[in-house]
Write a structure and sequence with these properties.
268 residues; alpha/beta; Nucleotidyltransferase, domain 5; 2 domains; five-stranded mixed sheet; 10 strands
Length: 268
């Protein structure tokens, strides 16, 4: 359900707080009109304790209080189970307490936006980026997005080409080795932390993908604050604000841990 919420202060609108704890980092941003404040901190087990002070710090940098916030954006995943629950619970608590709406952001799209922001002029209409994030347990979180530049009556932004899903580590090389050039299965660009987490695996995948023009565009891309702020602003502009009760995580797999036997087998 979309909620039409008047700005808390028209002279600063929109004031959007954005956060993501789906990875092993805490990424957050506060956008005040065109100005963006960001923070990047260790996450994991520390996320639940460090997130609120980090958000408070962003507001302090901007000289604002909580009442100035128009909406709270959150990375809904996919990602670490505990991280997703942290992001959703903190977002819901703040939004309910402030009587503000929420904006749901796909974490993998934030990774795509981070890769694009590294060199915005390098992106053309329809360019497709595949995002591959480490999902542990020899698996990857994978999604694909196409970039759409600004056209009359339409905002620039990403269009989902492949919905987030889980792949085994062997899938990229298998899939792209058999993909004919210029097909929808033949990606042009890759981004995400899986490229660094599994360099040996992706040497094979990139070699296979070179046959269809595949390049590693952003192996350092993360759902950083600047990317979160950009997506939050886009979501706000097109009226995607939702009730706080709808701040729910995006899960793409049911199994979130290995058994003792599976961990022993993996070590062997």
């Amino acid at each position: 359900m979309s909620l039409p919420v008047p700005p808390s202060d028209p002279t600063l609108s929109p004031v959007l707080l954005a956060l993501d704890t789906a990875t092993d980092r805490i990424h957050a941003a506060l956008s005040v009109g065109a100005r963006v404040y960001t923070v990047d901190l260790p996450g994991g087990a520390q996320a639940s304790a460090a997130l609120l002070p980090a958000l408070t710090g962003l507001l302090s940098q901007a000289g604002l209080g909580w009442s100035a916030v128009d909406a709270i954006a959150f990375g809904r995943g996919p990602g670490a189970f505990t991280g997703l629950r942290t992001a959703c619970s903190v977002t819901q608590g703040l939004a309910l307490g402030l009587d503000r709406p929420v904006l749901a952001i796909d974490t993998l799209m934030a990774v795509a936006e981070d890769a694009r922001l590294a060199d915005p002029t390098a992106w053309r209409e329809g360019d497709v980026l595949w995002v591959l994030q480490d999902a542990r347990m020899d698996e990857l979180y994978v999604a694909a997005y196409a970039w759409q530049s600004t056209t009359p009556g339409q905002l620039a932004g990403w269009t989902q080409v492949q919905a987030p899903q889980v792949w085994p580590l062997t899938e990229p090389a298998r899939r792209w080795a058999s993909a004919p050039a210029a097909s929808s299965e033949a990606p042009a660009r890759l981004a995400g932390n899986a490229l660094r987490a599994y360099p040996d695996r992706f040497t094979e995948a990139l070699a296979a993908g070179a046959q269809v023009g595949l390049t590693a565009q952003g192996d350092a891309a993360q759902p950083r604050g600047e990317a979160l702020a950009s997506l939050a602003q886009q979501a706000w502009a097109v009226g995607q604000a939702m009730d706080a009760a709808l701040a729910l995580p995006l899960y793409v797999r049911d199994k979130v841990a290995q058994t003792t036997a599976e961990r022993q087998a993996a070590r062997a």
